[in-house]
Specification:
With about 160 residues, this protein is mainly alpha-helical. It has one domain. It is built from 5 helices and no strands.
Length: about 160
């Protein structure tokens, strides 16, 4: 009887250990870089709005360009780490996890195009194309953050 109880408690411990998320402090590694592209891309949208309302103050254009560059660098790092996390953690391979990865890739492409548009000179670098791309990229990256959060903490639905 005591052996059965011990075996049962050991089986529970193994089950709990296998379901535990592996990574830094129990979080997937890509989660460390998740906030940076979100903040940078939303910040680029805000500086684009400030530029459009400042009647062409070029400093806001420079802020947007730097924010887009930093966001793209960290977006690539987060994407690479996300591929690793999806490969090694089966609980992340849900429709939310793969959907989040797809949104991250699409957001990176949109913001890369946005960075190229921002490389133009003057008013046309932001209004209207740069501003529209910033809105689209911000919505995509915030949707990515929500889906990635759902893949980690939401209801686990296997795809």
């Amino acid at each position: 009887m005591a052996d059965d109880v011990e075996e049962l408690s050991m089986a529970r411990a193994v089950d709990e250990r296998s379901m535990r998320r592996v990574g830094l402090a129990g979080h997937p590694y890509s989660s460390l870089f998740l906030p940076v592209p979100i903040v940078c891309f939303v910040g680029a949208l805000l500086t684009d709005l400030a530029y459009a309302n400042s009647e062409g103050n070029l400093q806001y254009l420079n802020f947007s360009s730097w924010l887009l560059t930093a966001g793209l660098i960290f977006c690539v790092v987060a994407g690479l780490l996300m591929i690793i996390d999806l490969a090694r953690l089966p609980q992340l391979r849900t429709r939310f996890g793969w959907g989040a990865f797809g949104l991250l890739v699409i957001a990176a492409i949109v913001e890369l195009i946005n960075a190229l548009v921002h490389a133009r000179d003057g008013w046309t670098a932001v209004v209207p194309a740069g501003l529209a791309l910033s809105v689209i990229g911000s919505v995509l990256i915030m949707s990515y953050g929500w889906l990635w959060h759902e893949s980690r903490y939401g209801v686990e639905v296997q795809a």
